Amino acid sequence: MPKILVIEDDPDMVMALRIPLEANGYEVVSASSGKEGLQKVKEVEPDLIILDVMMETTTAGFQVSLQLRNPDPRSEYAAYRHIPILILTAIHTTTSLRFGPDEAYLPVDDFVDKPVDPDVLLEKVRTLIERSQKAS
User: Fold this and answer.
1) The domain that contains 112 carries what CATH number?
2) How far apart are the C-alpha atoms of 54 and 9, rounded to whole Å?
3) What count of Cα atoms within 13 Å lies in the side-chain half-sphere of residue 74?
4) What is the distance between the alpha carbons of residues 11 and 106, in angstroms, rounded to a whole number?
């Protein structure tokens, strides 16, 4: 059963993600801050990370993704660099700001907008996990 780590500070959003994911055979573990999320990555070794952008700070999610994807082989997260990251954001619906995955500034694999459409979520999760499994 694939494990998904949801790093999100809003318990209602965690539940909105947990329900369709668990109903489709995924094990869901959650963390309510970037710091807790980084600890859980090491404990759980998830198959996928769903990461909120705005948590304890407005860019907490970006900081987490940069730490996880640090190219330094001595990074404490080097062993987890391959885990796909799906960013959860409301930025596209609340501002005119647009961004996408960028290896240097935003090293993530894909985005899903809030409010989350469960079908879109499941499709992105399935695609990222399959791509990751083929690569390893």
Assistant:
1) 3.40.50.2300
2) 8
3) 0
4) 25
Model confidence at 136, pLDDT cuts 50, 70, 90, reads confident
pLDDT for the residue 9: 94
Count of beta carbons in the 10 Å neighbourhood of residue 98: 7
User: Amino acid identity of 69?
Assistant: R
Domain count, the chain: 1
Give the tokens for residue 111.
């985005």
User: What's the domain range around 13?
Assistant: 3-135
* Amino acid 106: pLDDT: 64
Angle, in degrees to the nearest 10, between helices 60-68 and 34-44: 30
Quote the pTM value: 0.89
DSSP codes, 13-78: HHHHHHHHHHHTT-EEEEESSHHHHHHHHHHH--SEEEEES-SSSTTHHHHHHHHHT---TTSTTG
> Which tokens belong to 129?
């996990």
